[in-house]
Amino acid sequence: MKANPTALAGVLLLENFVSHDKRGTFIKTFHANSFGAEQLTVDFRESYYSVSHKDVIRGMHFQRPPHEHDKLVYVTQGSILDVIVDLRPDSPSYLQHVAIQLNEHISSVYIPRGCAHGFLTLSDTATVVYNVTSVYEPSADAGIRWDSIGFDWPVTEPIVSGRDNSFVNLEDFDSEF
Ligand SMILES: Cc1cn([C@H]2C[C@H](O)[C@@H](COP(=O)(O)OP(=O)(O)O[C@H]3O[C@H](C)C(=O)[C@H](O)[C@H]3O)O2)c(=O)[nH]c1=O
């Protein structure tokens, strides 16, 4: 696994191990030694996935302290535009965002605690896997409005949940990280 830095401090684009043969494809998305060598968390406490239609936007989500978590995200079917916002006041990339296209199998994105995560579905459907380092705590499940982060989402009529449209704007967000 090769880790590549991004414009946001600590957010890494990871190149997955991918092997093709006549049977199909084999992909490795986690390797404790490689993660440890990059000082990445290896203690994932939950794993879940979502299946989204084209033009769906999910996000921008995070868990509030003390339930914040690191997150490893990858796509097992389809493609997404993965978007991360830095909510850490002490970070050199505070309040900045990055958008990374994730295509099935090829790469994963590692998102440190203190960042908000979301994505736009680019393909007809997309299956997105999340591995996180804390268990789900409803009272700490929070977010920032997807259209308040200064990113021009390449979609004309996004499909967004009422909850995601009810989050606070980034300019009004008071960071606890
Ligand atoms: C995360 C979670 C959610 N839920 C419930 C809450 C809702 O009733 C339902 C769907 O949750 P949500 O609408 O938050 O799902 P997404 O909008 O796909 O959020 C996900 O996608 C964005 C991009 C992320 O980065 C989040 O980490 C991830 O939660 O499952 C649970 O019961 N347990 C859980 O661990």
TrEMBL record:
It comes from the Bacteria. InterPro entries: RmlC-like, RmlC-like_jellyroll, RmlC_Cupin_sf. The record marks Y136 as: Participates in a stacking interaction with the thymidine ring of dTDP-4-oxo-6-deoxyglucose. Its EC number is 5.1.3.13. One of its GO terms (cellular component) is cytosol. Gene3D superfamilies: Jelly Rolls. The active site is at H61 (proton acceptor), Y130 (proton donor). GO terms for molecular function: dTDP-4-dehydrorhamnose 3,5-epimerase activity. GO terms for biological process: dTDP-rhamnose biosynthetic process; polysaccharide biosynthetic process. Pathway: Carbohydrate biosynthesis; dTDP-L-rhamnose biosynthesis. It catalyses: dTDP-4-dehydro-6-deoxy-alpha-D-glucose = dTDP-4-dehydro-beta-L-rhamnose. Keywords: Isomerase. SUPFAM superfamilies: RmlC-like cupins. It is an enzyme of class 5 (isomerase). It holds the Pfam family dTDP_sugar_isom. Homodimer. Belongs to the dTDP-4-dehydrorhamnose 3,5-epimerase family. Catalyzes the epimerization of the C3' and C5'positions of dTDP-6-deoxy-D-xylo-4-hexulose, forming dTDP-6-deoxy-L-lyxo-4-hexulose. This is dTDP-4-dehydrorhamnose 3,5-epimerase. It comes from Hymenobacter aerilatus. The gene is rfbC.
